[in-house]
Amino acid sequence: MVAEDIIVRPIISEKSSNAMNEGKYTFEVSKKATKIDIKHAVEKLFEVKVLDVTTMNVKGKPKRQGVHQGMTSDWKKAIVTIDTNPAEKSYTDKGGKVKKLDSKKYKTSIEEFGA
């Protein structure tokens, strides 16, 4: 699946807006997407480092319009926790020298979310 097909839309509510301060962002995602697919899609689209992905299936609600009754569609929600304080990684090689890994520059928040 393509990253643009996995992430359907961001979910902006009072609860999700409060969670943004902790680095947790909520998205509606494709029902067939796995946690690994969601992680790779968010990292690719928003250039952030994803630490954790929590998913849940949301059941549709009953709705009526006049005498006709039906259900809204079922959908899948993902809460993605990003690294808000990315640190450089280093290691000690055989000679005792400390080497730093060349890593990508990650963002600490998602600006496109409308915060």
CATH superfamily: RRM (RNA recognition motif) domain
Strand order of the largest sheet: 1-2-6-3
Give the helix tally: 3
Shape assignment: elongated
Order of helices and strands: HEHEHEEEEEE
For the sheet with most strands, the description reads: 4 strands, antiparallel
Helix/strand-derived category reads: alpha+beta
Give the topology.
Blueprint: H1 3-6, E1 7-10, H2 14-19, E2 24-29, H3 35-46, E3 50-58, E4 62-65, E5 68-71, E6 75-82, E7 90-92, E8 98-100
Antiparallel strand pairs: 1-2, 2-6, 3-6, 4-5, 7-8
How would you sum up this structure, described in words?
By secondary structure, the chain is α+β, with helices and mostly antiparallel strands. It has a single domain, classed as Alpha-Beta Plaits, CATH 3.30.70.330. Helices cover 19% and strands 36% of the residues. It is built from 3 helices and 8 strands. The strands form 3 sheets. The protein has a 4-stranded antiparallel sheet. The protein has a two-stranded antiparallel ribbon with strand order 4-5. A two-stranded antiparallel sheet has the order 7-8. The radius of gyration is 19 Å and the shape is elongated.
Describe the structure concisely.
By secondary structure, the protein is an alpha+beta fold. 19% of the residues lie in helices and 36% in strands.
Features:
115 residues; Alpha-Beta Plaits; 4-stranded antiparallel β-sheet; two-stranded antiparallel ribbon
